[in-house]
Design brief:
By secondary structure, this protein is mostly helical. 70% of the residues lie in helices and 4% in strands. The longest helix has 25 residues, at 214-238.
Length: 278
């Protein structure tokens, strides 16, 4: 136990967290990957999966999320998808030229953050687990996996709805999950309006939101996040709360998310009228 706890005191861990929060994702991932390897390689499962290591799994996973997004953005600026992505899409390409690791990074990131969530839950830290769900939902959105995004955002919303005395930071995360849930429902509804929102659970299809409820829930969540943001901003203004640069960025980002959720909800087509009784 003492050796595993030492992983979080490793200067490379602290430096990796700082780099990740500063947006230097690749450098952060390199450092955090080294620390995780030293803490888990050739160790029994019990030591590899000690809840004390949850923050390390989380930070490494989130750093890889950033790496994957940067790789995807760089690819979008090129002439087209990489050979690896073309092959995954069924196109022919040079089998030797598969150096784009963004898909692999996203997959590993999902595994790491999902593992972190399991470890946080094992230690009773449901708040940290909710942050993991938010990250997983964002990864699902990146890959246009709307069912997974809805399921993960819903997990986060359920936690925050049940929590009491949320601080400003947690309220921002709560409203971000609500806005993300609305946007994911809307995206699904726009792409497949007559299809249930579903996820794969152990090889079985599990419905998360029936098709008939998608538009109503999308609109309701969009209204909720707008009301919540207005209430939060009003409280902060009334209390004359001093906001640092980071908090201001978070609130601005949240305002963009809420605006997007409203736009998506408003763009959904009106539901078809019920057939007349014969």
């Amino acid at each position: 136990m003492a050796e595993q706890c030492a992983a979080l005191r490793d200067p490379r861990y602290r430096a990796g967290v700082k780099l990740r929060r500063g947006g230097r994702f690749e450098a952060a991932a390199n450092l955090l990957g080294e620390v995780l390897a030293l803490a888990t390689e050739n160790q029994p499962d019990k030591r590899q999966l000690d809840p004390e290591l949850a923050p390390l799994y989380y930070e490494y996973g989130v750093a890889l999320v950033g790496v994957a997004r940067e790789a995807s953005a760089a690819e979008d600026e090129d002439d087209g998808p990489s050979p690896k992505r073309r092959k995954l899409a069924g196109e022919k390409g040079d089998a030797e030229d598969h150096d784009d690791g963004s898909l692999d990074d996203a997959g590993v990131a999902w595994q790491l953050v999902d593992q972190a969530r399991s470890l946080f839950l094992a230690s009773g830290d449901r708040g940290a687990a909710a942050r993991c769900a938010e990250q997983l939902a964002g990864l699902a959105v990146d890959q246009r996996q709307w069912g997974d995004a809805v399921a993960e955002f819903s997990w986060g919303v359920a936690f925050y709805d049940a929590a009491a005395d949320l601080g400003v930071e947690d309220r921002v995360h709560h409203l971000s999950c609500v806005a993300g849930l609305a946007a994911a429902l809307g995206a699904h509804g726009a792409e497949a309006p007559a299809t249930d929102v579903a996820v794969d659970v152990a090889g079985l299809r599990e419905v998360v939101v029936p098709a008939a409820e998608v538009q109503e829930r999308c609109a309701a969540h969009a209204r909720d996040c707008e009301r919540g943001l207005n209430a939060l901003l009003g409280e902060l203004a009334q209390a004359r709360t001093a906001l640092d640069a980071g908090r201001k960025r978070d609130l601005c980002a949240l305002a963009v998310e809420v605006s997007h959720a409203k736009e998506v909800a408003g763009s959904l087509p009106a539901p078809a009228p019920a057939p007349a009784p014969k």
